[in-house]
Amino acid sequence: VSSHQPINTCMLRPLEVPFRYLFGPGPSNVPPRILAAGGRPIIGHMHSEMFGIMNDIKKGIQYAFQTSNNMTLAMSGSGHTAMECAVFNIVEPGESVLVAINGIWGERVAEIAERMGAKVHTLFKTPGGHFTNAEIEQALAKHKPVLFFLTHGESSAGLVHPMDGVGDICHKYNCLLLVDSVASLGAAPLLMDQQNIDILYTGSQKALNAPPGTAPVSFSERACHKMFNRKTKPVSYLLDMTHLSNYWGNDGKPERIYHHTGPVSGFFALRESLAILAEMGLENSWSHHTEIAEYLWKGLEDLGLKLFIKDKDLRLPSVTTIAIPEGYDWKELLAYIMKHHRIEFTGGLGPSVGMVLRIGLMGYNCNKANAAMALAALEDALKQCRKSKA
Ligand code: PMP
């Protein structure tokens, strides 16, 4: 027997990975302690020690989310996996869902819900906008959804959404509240239980500083009641919470049965990232992100730039959006900064493309030295890339 497909010579070269300062909206640089955890020799996904590590992860997420929910776990997959898991398990085809769209993440959730056959209603603002509780209440009364989706940290717009009272309003209308905290967890205050959030998810690769590929998620008792008493099975086998709750030891059954092979190395890294957050303390992490963000915002304004979110209280501390300065090509600015400073900033995403530049300083990356480096790189690019006198 001989093989016919020839080896491409690229496969005979060693792996090359350049160094980059990841100062965009994620992933962020991974600190050595987390890299080392992810580099530990793996064990089996069903070994008792692995279940012990998963139990630690659960405790770490409960702290990070500020919840006592038993139904707390990490998805094998990125933030989108948690997003789909929440929608697929909570909503049955034909049920009404309300999605707040003020950037790309609402757009995505609306599409996910539409694909699984939900009746999707939307509340809409252009990027940078946010919703008042009165607007939310009016839409809940009108559409009577089983689920309302809101993004806490809108990374495409750089907006942190006010959360006070939203959970109470949802419950008044017998609706579950689903919140995306992928870009905000650890950077801006969020209290799952106190704020009456029913389903909360985040990602590993932002302020948690783990590699991409795992996504913490938690479900309230109310959410569990709905998802475990449905008439139809969720469309996804992989994301079915009946199986996942058993895999994570959350269903009270004495034995865990094989469902899928979780990302063992990813779980090691996630455990370590949650341990670092616990050691630092949430309040310290929140205030640290705010302090560095304020330093960055002041520096950007001193460079003559305009911040996209005018109201300081609505600015997401982890991802800052800058209005694209007149007289510049935003793609050229980004390319210049990457080439000459090895720094990644990004442009907008979805509806904010062409509106903003984005700088993210999250977790391990969030310090004054990095903020100063980001400002110096931007100052240099503004000098070098000017197209016209604006
Ligand atoms: N929600 C928000 C707010 C995000 O910033 C991101 C990632 N940019 C996601 C969801 C999706 O996460 P992932 O890319 O890990 O699937």
Automatic annotation (TrEMBL):
GO cellular component, one term: peroxisome
EC assignment: 2.6.1.44, 2.6.1.51
Residue ranges that the Swiss-Prot or TrEMBL entry lists as coiled coil: none
Matching CDD domains: AGAT_like (cd06451)
Domain of life: Eukaryota
Pfam families for the chain: Aminotran_5
Cofactor annotation: pyridoxal 5'-phosphate
Keywords attached to this entry: Aminotransferase, Pyridoxal phosphate, Transferase
GO-annotated molecular function: alanine-glyoxylate transaminase activity; L-serine-pyruvate transaminase activity
Binding-site residues, substrate: R358
Principal EC category: transferase
Annotated PROSITE patterns: AA_TRANSFER_CLASS_5
Reaction equation(s) it catalyzes: glyoxylate + L-alanine = glycine + pyruvate; L-serine + pyruvate = 3-hydroxypyruvate + L-alanine
Modified residues (N6-(pyridoxal phosphate)lysine): K206
InterPro entries attached to this UniProt entry: Aminotrans_V_dom, Aminotrans_V_PyrdxlP_BS, PyrdxlP-dep_Trfase, PyrdxlP-dep_Trfase_major, PyrdxlP-dep_Trfase_small, SP_NH2Trfase/AEP_transaminase
One GO term (biological process): glycine biosynthetic process, by transamination of glyoxylate
Keyword Transferase: yes
Family per record: Belongs to the class-V pyridoxal-phosphate-dependent aminotransferase family.
PANTHER family registered for this protein in UniProt: ALANINE--GLYOXYLATE AMINOTRANSFERASE, AMINOTRANSFERASE CLASS V
Subunit structure: Homodimer.
Protein's name in the database: Alanine--glyoxylate aminotransferase
